[in-house]
């Protein structure tokens, strides 16, 4: 993806999020220069938890068709999970555009609530995992939706209206997209590790390859190791 495209997606996404009354934390608006100057104090914690802007086309170069906007608002550490105490949770705000696919994947460790925070319908396609982690194309998928249990056939589709949510457990294969318009999505989960805890059905990457045709307006999480080293 070109940096100029990423900058515009950040601006558009911020406007969309604010239209629902959600305001990003202050560090969201730090420039790359401010992030660098604060790297030895408060921005070091942001980098460690990998908080911030995250825009991906999964390395395929078709963001409008295959992509997702994310912003990680808060996140614990993997060590907290190992100890079973401390900050065991994470939160993201995301945008799925109309008919923009977030491809089929599962998590090994992370359980997550996917919440339609506003906009159009959010549609999820879901499968269970077999013992070896591959997709189970036969067994029914049982999920919790706002305190109610729903049973879907393998590959069944669940449509969430604004305010509705679904709880996905480790091993639940899922893909999702906006139907009828763009969707503001909330994610509340156990500690998030996007470097190792995303298993995709297809051989694709989690992050975009970025061409810096202009200066970034804000750094992406995937920029931190390069720009803040």
UniProtKB/TrEMBL annotation:
Stretches of the chain forming a coiled coil according to its record: none
Enzyme class, broadest EC rank: isomerase
CDD domains found in the cross-reference section: cupin_EcSI (cd20309)
Superkingdom classification of source: Bacteria
Keywords assigned: Carbohydrate metabolism, Isomerase, Manganese, Metal-binding
Cofactor section: Mn(2+)
Single GO MF annotation: D-lyxose ketol-isomerase activity
EC number, as in UniProt: 5.3.1.15
Recorded catalytic activity of this chain's protein: D-lyxose = D-xylulose
A Pfam family that the UniProt record links to this protein: Lyx_isomer
Matching InterPro entries: D-lyxose_isomer (IPR010864), EcSI_cupin (IPR047581), RmlC-like_jellyroll (IPR014710)
Family, as annotated: Belongs to the D-lyxose ketol-isomerase family.
Protein name: D-lyxose ketol-isomerase
Source organism per UniProt: Pseudochrobactrum asaccharolyticum
